Amino acid sequence: MRILHVEGGRHLYGGSFQVLHLLRGLAARGHENLLACPRGCALASAAEPVAEVHDMPMHGDVDPLMTARLHRLIRASRPDLVHLHSRIGADVMGGLAARLARVPVIHTRRVDNPEPRWLVALKYRLHDRVIAISEGIGRVLVGEGLPPAKLRLARSAVDFESYARPCDRSLVAERLGVEPDALLIGVVAQLIQRKGHAVLLDALPPLLDAHPDLRVVFLGQGPLADPLRERIAREGLAERVILAGFRDDLDVLLPCFDLIVHPALMEGLGVSLLQAASAGVPIVASRAGGIPEAVRHGENGLLVPPGDSAALGEAIGSLLSGPERRRELGDAGRALMVREFSIDAMVEANLAVYRELV
């Protein structure tokens, strides 16, 4: 099968990393990948061994010329189908281009942001199938009017073995600038409002009082970096809360965290949660979107209502005080990832949708 993939993201994390997993899995099965992505994006170089890369200008939702560029590529490369992987203009512009070229088109939806029913009715008419990466996203789509017959499920995956490694505490302490014996909480997420960093900051004071050795590390980048830094300084937390920025060494860092916290207000699934579980780290997260599919309450973590800082603090406190319970949840998380979130399962789920149309 010859598949043209379209990904509008510029950084190699989240959805773009899932695309890379899929490209590698398809190539290993003998399928031919083409990739359209923005010029200079990190995915382009990573995908070169497994895809014919076509980088081009992509300016998001305000780039109507993307339709013409993608249409020319489709006509020239003659794929069997087009798979649109992001909403950054690709969902509409790519859908129009594939329709004009009369090629089957699939769109993968990775976020649970609500959309107006009129937009759902118009936009998803362009797509032959819509793949949700979680049941939670699927429920949102159907609730907004997507015909259930168009919807398919292909959960995001994680390279389990990359994160299932021993902790090198001295190395991680040096990289993060913390004491080797510190009690570590990590938040792995873009620094944007819906990821809920502010909710965790609201919950921190009693936790910091109860655990003098506690350090909280925000791993990620985004527009809230400066406001978060200002709040942390204003509240005298600079010695206890660290903004570590975007990291490409999560496979080394994650196994040394005592707890991962994900207080998101909205979330499609949460790839960082899959990575944390693979590393054997217990999780406290919001019961939002597709998160309960990655974090099973009482199995590999604890779930709390979104935006409830008191409940979040109580759940975190219960695990910080119970190292044996943390180990049990961490072990169960590893088993869950192997059982339900393997890359092979994700690739086969996507292939099943392709075969419906080709």
Automatic annotation (TrEMBL):
Keywords from the named record: Glycosyltransferase, Transferase
Organism the protein comes from: Thiorhodococcus fuscus
Name the record gives this protein: Glycosyltransferase
Enzyme class: transferase
Keyword Transmembrane helix on entry: no
Domain Glycosyltransferase subfamily 4-like N-terminal as annotated: residue spans: 14-161
EC nos: 2.4.-.-
Gene3D superfamilies: Glycogen Phosphorylase B
UniProt lineage: Bacteria, Pseudomonadati, Pseudomonadota, Gammaproteobacteria, Chromatiales
